[in-house]
């Protein structure tokens, strides 16, 4: 051990390992390490012995077998003949989808509510307080279930759209159908499509990316790039001559014209949902389970974010507000230009943990039947294969990777904000 | 602050007490209670009533085994399990037997290493649709939204059925029957599919049961039965024959009402005499006393009585016996001879 | 000089403020209609509140309280109001509320649960309202960890006493041996003695004492625990046990010992990185696999262990925040007094750091308490699990909103009062200048 590799010159007594501060920390660490390794060995030994008694072996080969169950909500192609691994991957993408949607909505709603709670309007402030307290003090599982129940019970079923005098009609010029199975919105279709770019071949991770989308994104990014160049040139001319050339129409044109041209070339049109048979066909279907989970998670987390934002705003010295007021700024400007930027420094660290919580809470998706990774890998796959150990370990690893990436990214952002602030 | 070690010590005590000995039968006898895995609640099969007493068709099997082994049909610890936890609970020894609407399949038998001791309910996966849709066959369900209970064989059967018939559907996976029922009633799905018995029991509690039809298509075989671990044949025999006793008793005409007189004195039917301990030593062969079968029948009654009480005419559900009638009446329920 | 004066010579009578700035109107003008935007917001908010209440109030109060089943409820509704829509059937709560609170706990022993809850509050009093409670109550706090489990699980009184004896061995052993052998050896020796007592000696002693002086109360299996009581019990045990673990983890995370630090950071980040539901899967599916073959303890205990580990990681972060908030001078002051590490922690650092952390601890508790509802997913009959079981009764199949409303109110009452307490504490601990 490390304690013995570097023996001291003077006579060494064993008791010095405990009483001599030079060695004590090394002793403690060595003991801790040995204890940890013994503990791990004990656990592994038990696991192997138990699995042996049950006649099971640890093997990942099950994940390449046919899943033979269907998943309704999927971002990529999948059918019941795909492998369990593919099903897990689809579930992972669903987890990420609801987490990203939830984080964005929670931030928007949370900041809004946090600011409104400080509003001078008594009734608005009270309504916001009631919202925050209601959501913070009732378990999120209950909110998810209730959100689903509200959607199911209050919205019309597709059957109500049928017949001569339907009870329900589509909204927004017959383009959006709001039903209790979800919301059908028009989808973007391309008649001269460029096709798909298939990544990772035929493996379980295969990933089709629409080339149309890539083309549009490339054109848009290039447009914005050129537009920013035009702005820089205008800035330069202003510095040199004092006159700012009028460039807004140039900047708008370099973004919009190529964009419209690309859309026209690709044959862009909208596909509207239509009631056919039992369900609406066509359009993009945002399922109830996704909407309920998304709403419940974002409203629940927004209540916490609102409190963080409120505390952050209150933490900004009142002198700042008064000084900004003395400069003659309007109160909305004071909020957006003086208070919020300073509050951001206090707000961001607890925000990170709320984003993490939202992502982790998305694992409650099984309560509404949204097939996230807990529903596929940790749900049906685990039930059908009976490989609890492998499934749970993989499930934990997946969440760990997501959580650590979020906290790394947010910490990086936090550090950047800190530097700017200094 | 001191609680951690105290709990640790308690855990340790539990640990020392929980070390399994050779046979489950001896374990159960020395413990004095039977640990029986049931559902967290399925109408007619297992649910706690207002007094906290578990009732249901599957619960009766647990009570029968407890009556046979321990002489007390109330000496059962009911352990609620989910589709996910049921098999682990059984293989880890947390429960002695599983009586939980579990389908007997080859892989559960051979791969998960369980022994199904019999089939107490012959079921099959069916579909329920609102009458107003005018659907008469499952093959007309192209494009329908289907509510399914997850964690069971149901979703596999469904995927196979729609794939082989080459029709599309939208699955809505749901954790509990109660939520599936809510979605179905609100029209969030067109079809509700699960075991036909559960469809019937769910429909019975609707506000207007007549507005819904259960399609005649049964797309799978779902033999549901009590389950024990592989490798303890004595225990499997006890559970198997506790259940068989209920079936045999119905065939022989023994009921909870007349079992008292029949077990008091020998009858002229040798099979009844063997079952009730007047002839032979059937109980001893199972490691039980001669009165075991009499106790089962006086506690829960025969198969038919249990069925009527929990699922049939005497309950709110009102299921017909169907496949679960005795073999003598055209059904499949059949007990091997008690001999 | 004339007497002409341009300044008023006598005071004017004080006048009432204009009617538009006082009273209800003034208040409304200032707080509700101060600008066009505010007026719109006020109207929208009022409309929203009116909409919600108009649906909620008739549903809540035009309701059926006495019925045997949902169908009977519906009959009564039809007879009274002509429709089943928009009326609650509270009869299900009336029928099952005891079950939803206590689970399968034997009804003649409910007093034990209630007493345990009262004791919990009493034991917390010295911590939560330190200045208002008598000093002697600290003894109740010390005895509480032994009394509460005994009340809940029952059994011989000698069990908790023997558990307490072990701690007495550690306490007195350390105190008396230190003079003879030095502190470290004294601690090690008395801990070993206590372990020896718990593992080997106490069982026969308890058995002997129980047969001679059989004092005890009826045993209750943990399987019978359920309902809202289970959520409270899980929350209290998880927080109580995780506090010492959390302190150790927080200290480990701050320590200079690299390996110890790595272990602590690894544990905390792992637990905080995975959802609680996966840890509960471990408790229900895997914990038996990780333990020596043949060991088997019941699911409630396993869930308690995982919930404790889970809350320990969060607790560690809360306490780390408390430690970080202490001025460095406190650490240096303790060092300059010549206190060693543990003395400094015990006498200087921890009392202050823990006090700062109390609001954080309370909010962690609220979080854990709400998270206990997840145990329904692994099949424990907590209050949400029970709502499923109740709906599996043919009498109540199909009932929905009433059960969830009841559960939501239960959680809201408990969590809201705790969060109010935490706010009160924050105000009390606030030393900075508020605007």
TrEMBL record, chain A:
GO terms for molecular function: transmembrane transporter activity. Residues 92-410 form the ABC transmembrane type-1 domain. Its main location: membrane. It is found in: Cell inner membrane; Cell membrane. GO terms for cellular component: ATP-binding cassette (ABC) transporter complex. The chain crosses the membrane at residues 23-44, 87-113, 134-152, 209-227, 248-271, 291-313, 392-413. One of its GO terms (biological process) is amino acid transport. It holds the Pfam family BPD_transp_1. Keywords: Amino-acid transport, Cell membrane, Membrane, Transmembrane, Transmembrane helix, Transport. It comes from the Bacteria. The keyword Membrane applies. Belongs to the binding-protein-dependent transport system permease family. HisMQ subfamily. This is L-glutamine ABC transporter membrane protein /L-glutamate ABC transporter membrane protein /L-aspartate ABC transporter membrane protein /L-asparagine ABC transporter membrane protein. InterPro entries: AA_ABC_transptr_permease_3TM, ArtM/GltK/GlnP/TcyL/YhdX-like, MetI-like, MetI-like_sf.
Automatic annotation (TrEMBL), chain B:
It comes from the Bacteria. Gene3D superfamilies: Periplasmic binding protein-like II (3.40.190.10). Keywords: Signal, Transport. Pfam families: SBP_bac_3. Residues 33-262 form the Solute-binding protein family 3/N-terminal domain. InterPro entries: Bact_solute-bind_prot3, SBP_3_CS, Solute-binding_3/MltF_N. CDD domains: PBP2_BztA. Residues 1-22 form the signal peptide. GO terms for biological process: amino acid transport. Transmembrane segments: none annotated. Belongs to the bacterial solute-binding protein 3 family. This is L-glutamine-binding protein /L-glutamate-binding protein /L-aspartate-binding protein /L-asparagine-binding protein. It comes from Epibacterium ulvae.
From TrEMBL, chain C:
InterPro entries: AA_ABC_transptr_permease_3TM, ArtM/GltK/GlnP/TcyL/YhdX-like, MetI-like, MetI-like_sf. GO terms for molecular function: transmembrane transporter activity. The keyword Membrane applies. The keyword DNA damage does not apply. GO terms for cellular component: ATP-binding cassette (ABC) transporter complex. Keywords: Cell membrane, Membrane, Transmembrane, Transmembrane helix, Transport. This is L-glutamine ABC transporter membrane protein /L-glutamate ABC transporter membrane protein /L-aspartate ABC transporter membrane protein /L-asparagine ABC transporter membrane protein. It comes from Epibacterium ulvae. PROSITE patterns: ABC_TM1. It is found in: Cell inner membrane; Cell membrane. It comes from the Bacteria. CDD domains: TM_PBP2.
């Amino acid at each position: 051990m490390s304690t013995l590799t570097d023996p001291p010159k003077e006579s060494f007594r064993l008791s010095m390992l405990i009483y001599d501060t030079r060695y004590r920390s090394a002793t403690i660490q060595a003991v801790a390490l040995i204890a940890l390794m013994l503990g791990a060995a004990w656990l592994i030994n038990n696991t192997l012995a138990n699995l042996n008694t049950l006649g099971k072996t640890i093997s990942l080969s099950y994940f390449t077998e046919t899943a033979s169950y269907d998943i309704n909500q999927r971002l990529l192609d999948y059918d019941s003949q795909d492998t369990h691994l593919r099903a897990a991957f689809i579930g992972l993408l669903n987890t990420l989808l609801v987490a990203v949607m939830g984080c964005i909505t929670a931030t928007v709603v949370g900041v809004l509510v946090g600011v409104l709670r400080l509003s001078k309007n008594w009734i608005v402030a009270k309504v916001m307080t009631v919202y925050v307290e209601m959501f913070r003090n009732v378990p999120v599982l209950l909110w998810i279930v209730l959100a689903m129940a509200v959607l199911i019970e209050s919205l019309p079923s597709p059957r109500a759209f049928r017949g001569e005098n339907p009870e329900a009609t589509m909204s927004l010029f017959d383009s959006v159908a709001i039903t209790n199975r979800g919301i059908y919105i028009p989808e973007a279709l391309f008649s001269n499509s460029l096709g798909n770019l298939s990544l990772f071949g035929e493996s379980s991770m295969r990933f089709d990316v629409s080339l149309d989308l890539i083309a549009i994104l490339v054109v848009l990014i290039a447009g914005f790039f050129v537009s920013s160049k035009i702005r820089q040139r205008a800035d330069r001319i202003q510095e040199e001559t004092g006159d700012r050339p009028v460039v807004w129409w140039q900047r708008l044109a370099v973004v919009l014209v190529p964009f419209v041209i690309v859309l026209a070339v690709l044959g862009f049109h909208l596909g509207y949902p239509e009631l056919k048979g039992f369900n609406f066909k066509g359009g993009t279907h945002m399922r109830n389970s996704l909407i309920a989970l998304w709403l419940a998670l974002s409203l629940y987390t927004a209540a916490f974010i609102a409190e963080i934002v409120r505390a952050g705003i209150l933490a900004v010295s009142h002198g700042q507000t008064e000084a900004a007021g003395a400069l003659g700024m309007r109160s909305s400007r004071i909020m957006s230009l003086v208070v919020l930027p300073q509050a951001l420094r206090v707000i961001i660290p607890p925000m990170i943990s709320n984003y993490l919580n939202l992502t982790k809470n998305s694992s409650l998706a099984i309560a509404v039947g949204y097939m996230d990774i807990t529903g596929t890998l940790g749900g049906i796959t685990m039930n059908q294969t009976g490989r609890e150990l492998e499934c749970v370990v993989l499930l934990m690893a997946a969440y760990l990777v997501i959580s650590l990436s979020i906290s790394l990214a947010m910490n990086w952002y936090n550090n950047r904000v800190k530097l700017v602030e200094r | 602050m001191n609680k951690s070690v105290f709990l640790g010590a308690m855990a340790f005590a539990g640990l020392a007490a929980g070390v399994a000995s050779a046979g489950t039968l001896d374990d159960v006898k020395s413990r004095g209670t039977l640990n029986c895995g049931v559902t967290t609640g399925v109408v007619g099969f297992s649910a706690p009533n207002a007094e906290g007493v578990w009732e249901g068709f599957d619960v009766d099997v647990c009570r029968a085994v407890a009556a046979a082994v321990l002489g007390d049909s109330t000496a059962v610890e009911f352990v609620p399990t989910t589709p996910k936890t049921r098999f682990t609970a059984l293989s880890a020894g947390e429960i002695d037997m599983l009586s939980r609407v579990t389908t007997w399949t080859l892989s559960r038998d051979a791969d998960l290493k369980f022994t199904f001791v019999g089939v107490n309910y012959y079921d099959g996966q069916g579909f329920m649709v609102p009458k107003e849709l005018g659907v008469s066959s499952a093959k007309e369900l192209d494009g329908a939204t289907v509510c399914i209970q997850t964690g069971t064989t149901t979703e596999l059967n469904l995927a196979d059925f729609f794939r082989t018939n080459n029709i599309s559907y939208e699955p809505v996976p749901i954790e509990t029957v109660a939520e599936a029922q809510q979605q179905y009633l609100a029209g969030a799905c067109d079809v509700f599919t699960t075991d036909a018995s559960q469809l019937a029991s769910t429909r019975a509690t609707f506000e207007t049961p007549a507005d819904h039809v259960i399609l005649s298509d049964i797309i799978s075989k779902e033999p549901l039965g009590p389950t024990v671990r592989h490798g303890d044949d004595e225990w499997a025999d006890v559970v198997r024959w506790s259940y068989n006793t209920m079936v045999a008793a119905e065939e022989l005409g023994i009921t909870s009402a007349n079992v008292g007189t029949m077990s008091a004195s020998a009858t002229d039917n040798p099979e009844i005499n063997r079952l009730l301990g007047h002839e032979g030593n059937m109980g001893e062969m199972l490691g039980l006393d001669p009165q075991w079968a009499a106790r089962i029948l006086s506690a829960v009654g025969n198969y038919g009585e249990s069925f009527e009480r929990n699922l049939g005419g005497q309950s709110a559900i009102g299921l017909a016996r169907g496949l679960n009638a005795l073999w003598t009446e055209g059904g499949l329920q059949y007990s091997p001879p008690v001999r | 000089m004339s007497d002409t004066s341009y300044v008023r010579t006598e005071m004017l009578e004080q006048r009432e403020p204009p009617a538009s700035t006082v009273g209800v109107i003034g208040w409304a003008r200032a707080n509700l209609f101060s600008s066009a935007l505010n007026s719109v917001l006020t109207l929208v908010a009022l409309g929203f509140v009116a909409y919600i209440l108009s649906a909620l109030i008739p549903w809540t109060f035009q309701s059926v309280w006495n019925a045997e089943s949902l169908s009977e409820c519906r009959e009564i509704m039809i007879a009274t109001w002509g429709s089943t829509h928009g009326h609650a059937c509270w009869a299900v709560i009336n029928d099952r509320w005891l079950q939803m609170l206590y689970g399968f706990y034997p009804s003649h022993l409910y007093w034990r649960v209630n007493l345990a809850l009262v004791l919990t509050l009493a034991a917390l009093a010295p911590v939560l309202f330190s200045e208002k409670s008598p000093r002697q109550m600290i003894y109740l706090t010390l005895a509480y960890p032994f009394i509460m489990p005994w009340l809940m699980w029952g059994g011989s009184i000698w069990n908790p006493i023997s558990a307490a004896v072990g701690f007495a061995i550690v306490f007195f052993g350390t105190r008396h041996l230190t003079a003879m052998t030095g502190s470290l050896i004294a601690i090690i020796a008395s801990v070993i003695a206590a372990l020896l007592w718990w593992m080997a000696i106490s069982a026969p002693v308890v058995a002997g004492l129980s047969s001679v002086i059989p004092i005890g109360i009826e045993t209750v299996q943990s399987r019978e625990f359920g309902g809202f009581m289970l959520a409270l019990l899980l929350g209290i045990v998880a927080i109580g046990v995780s506090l010492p673990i959390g302190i150790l983890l927080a200290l480990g995370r701050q320590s200079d010992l690299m390996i110890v630090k790595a272990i602590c950071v690894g544990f905390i980040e792992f637990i905080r990185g995975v959802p609680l539901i996966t840890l509960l899967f471990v408790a229900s599916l895997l914990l038996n696999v990780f333990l020596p073959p043949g060991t088997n303890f019941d699911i409630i205990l396993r869930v308690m262990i995982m919930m404790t580990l889970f809350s320990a990681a969060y607790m560690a972060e809360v306490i780390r925040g408390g430690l970080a908030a202490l001025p460095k001078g406190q650490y240096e002051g303790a060092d300059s007094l010549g206190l060693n590490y543990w003395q400094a922690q015990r006498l200087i650092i921890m009392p202050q750091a823990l006090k700062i952390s109390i609001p954080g601890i309370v909010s962690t508790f609220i979080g854990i308490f709400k998270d206990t509802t997840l145990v329904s997913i692994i099949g424990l009959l907590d209050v949400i699990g029970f709502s499923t079981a109740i709906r599996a009764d043919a009498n109540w199949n199909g009932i929905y909103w009433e059960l969830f409303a009841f559960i939501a109110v239960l959680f809201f009452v408990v969590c809201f009062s705790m969060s109010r307490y935490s706010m009160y504490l924050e105000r009390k601990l606030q030393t900075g200048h508020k605007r």
